[in-house]
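Reviewers of the previous submission asked for a worked example of the structure-prediction workflow described in the proposal, so we include one complete record here. The input consisted solely of the amino acid sequence. No template or homolog information was supplied to the procedure at any stage.
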Amino acid sequence: MKKHVLVTLAAIAGCSFVPSAFSADAQNMIAEETTSVTVMPDENCKTFYNANNNKNWFIQLGAGIDIPYVENMLYKGDAKRRVQPNYQVGFGRWFSPYFAWRASASYRQLKWNGGNISKAKMGEADFDIMWDAFNSVMGVDAKRPVSVIPFVGIGVGYARGMKSDAINVYDDNGKPKKTSVTLPVSAGVQFRFRTCDYVDLFLEGRLGFFGDNFNNTVGGKPIDINATAIAGVSINLGPRSFKTYSPCDDLAYISGLNNEINSLRSDLAATGAALAEAESQLPCPEVTVVECPDPAPAPILATVRFALNSAVITPEEQVNVYNVAQHLKQNPDLAIVVRGYADKKTGTSNYNMKLSEQRAQAVADVLINNYGINPERLVLEAAGSDSQIYDTNNWNRIVIFIPVE
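From that input alone, the workflow returned the following structure tokens.
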């Protein structure tokens, strides 16, 4: 018989108390646990903004003028800049109160030189990052009447129909090029005037910096410049709005949590002191020895089922044979009856007797050969179909396991 000794550790520990010392410790614990806790956000609360999905989109339509600053090959007179119209359309989105992106396309006719006029037709696409300086410096205000918005951008320009006596860039055939492709960078500033939630007016100035082949005339300064001034309307697809959060919004809730925490800490300290006082009065108990009987072998619930007219163990049923083998290994003194059955609605009584014997033998072979079970621990029986252990007929194509008494 195995013996398990259960020792009441709490009682033994209670015997080691020194009441006066414990009383002092309890008082210190109460003083420590009742110290109040205060967790509050910084008084200078800052508001945080997040963009609302699918909001703060805008469309811009504008028109203005262009003035190119390029090489001049003059035949008479002084350089004269030629002012030409510019048309622009764009769209973008404010992804925070401070920053937006914008994609735009523009079309212009360029003219330059004071004597023999040079000219070209040009389209340009730009991608800009815009910064609302007033929101950044003076605080966010969606209804501010005037905003100053600097921006920088990159783009691609395509000019065609280039006509100029000064062209000195040639194509593969040795003829003056009439087209050019450039990748300008630009910077500018937009002044936005609010009229309502959905419509703003704007004035915008931009300087585009192009490579020297902007007008297919290379010489002089390595950078060509095009100055643009645009006036237009910005259509907001809904009022500008952003999700906001400030820790100060939750001051009342946080204060309530602080009070609740301090109350719980006080209750916990009082309960701990009362428990310590009660434990200090406990007598030292005797050690109790409890004898536990050896556990009886667990019943074998596994079965192995077979297909019609078959003594072959299917892969699905192999796991049940494995479970029986593990049970036998964990209980080395246990012997079992391996009893086979057949269903009575198929086959004769003599045939079913042989089939049930084959089924029992097939299971025993796996236990012996695959899992090393001693054959002396197995008693094979064939029950045939004269007796049926289940009401459902096809359930009786089975091998069951019964512990030997």
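The CA atoms of residues 97 and 140 lie 7 Å apart. We consider this example representative of the routine output the project will generate in years two and three.
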